[in-house]
Description:
The complex is a heterodimer.
Chain A: H1 8-38, H2 44-47, H3 53-88, H4 93-107, H5 111-124, H6 131-157, H7 160-168, H8 173-188, H9 190-203, H10 215-226, H11 229-260, H12 274-290
Chain B: H1 2-6, H2 8-41, H3 45-59, H4 63-73, H5 83-109, H6 112-120, H7 125-155, H8 167-178, H9 181-210
Helix pairs in contact in B: 2-3, 2-5, 2-8, 3-5, 4-5, 5-7, 6-7, 7-9, 8-9
Amino acid sequence: MLYDVPGPRGRRRILVGSIVAALVIGALAAVALVRLAHHGQLDAARWKFVTEPSILRYLMFGLLNTLKVAAVAGGLALAVGALMAVGRLAPSVLVRAGATSYVQFCRSLPVLPLILFIGLGFPELGVRLPAFWFLVLGLALYNSAVFAEIFRAGVVSLPRGQREAAYALGLTYWGTMRLVLLPQAVRRVLPATLSQFVVLLKDSSLGFVISYPELLRRGQITGEFTHSILQVYVVVAVIYIIVNATLSYLVHRLERRQKRAPIVRPAAGASPLSTPTDRGAVRAGGKELTGR
Amino acid sequence: MNVVLHHLGLYWSGLWVTLELTVLSFMCALLVGTVVAVMRVSPAAPLRAAGLLYVETVRNTPPLLLLFLFVYGLPKVGLIYSLFVSAVVVLGGYTGAFVAEVIRSGINAVPVGQAEAARSLGLTFSQTLRHVVLPQAFRTMVPPLGNLLTALVRNTSLAAPIGVLELTERADQLNATAAAPVPIFIGVLITYMIVTLPLGAVIGAVERRVAVAR
């Protein structure tokens, strides 16, 4: 709280401010609507396409293509990302250097030129694949580096005792990662991973530049076909917002759940003494991570 | 390779536009972000709602779609802007939504006790913000703002599909005549890295300087 709880005069001022703000926002919306109506953009004819099943089906298959690309690229990026995160924390200097340079390199790639390079350059090099795979490759390359960083941050944020205890029990590096660190880290970074997945889903619209028929491309074609460009783009935006807001809502729920309950539950029969310290460490670690 | 070396001038002029886009839209983003962040923490409910609506709408829409809406949609209601201005406004507005969240969480990251202590010393609301909360909030905002800036350098390539003659579009046009996509686009990727890698190093140095140990 940046200010004290307002008294009667403060409350009155806030009420007046709220009313003025609502009026201004309402006026702006009204101006926009009048302008749209004046230019005939609200005419029923321009919005008729939303009632035509064939056009809706065309757009929905575009959305399906978008989701397909996002799912395949996301899965690929997750797998490579996890591998690179493990590599970046490996005891071997060589493995660490390799994984680090992969991550640093791929993270600095701009996605649109990358997709252009893959989509236009690979056929030139004799690699002939459908546009789908070029788009998947471009998105997976960049996002695998981002996922690797997210996973690494998750592992690093775990209390050091976890790793030390695993080593003390005689687990190897790989055993420690697989059985002790990664399962905890994955749960901890689930919200960040899902947020990045929303970014990936939005970036799949870049398939536009290599003519992959995803939602945005199909929206553009529909707009030209029905002569209602503005309206179709608004509808496409609403579709994207619904899909992504659902994902974001899931992220929000997960974050709330993780804040409420400690992620590291003591095993049955564990000493009750260890619980409070564990809990404190988890909370502190989680906060550090979300601050990034 | 020769194609790139023969057209270094094109790369240079494209890079210049890319940098102009970056600087102008980042300034725009800071402005939008500050205004929206203030709206989101204001005591007036309608302002909070409008700020939330803005952030959620913009963050969940692909920036390319926002650009298309601006460039192909607005002329339908008689609003026509140059391509460069459109790109600056859309990239600034898009990044601004993220900046708003960074500023908001930066302010929230300052312990409540700081503001309470400042108030109990008799500082006014604006004094509390200026002397106590913002200097501390700013330090936690530097790393995420730096990330947004480097992301923005790469995002300026989104202006290519609408025809702004920045780096990517220049290369795409060069490719249309020279038809050598492999060296041309490798050149583009390297040029972006020439900007983002040193920028990342500078931001890292700034981060280390302002880092707060809590």
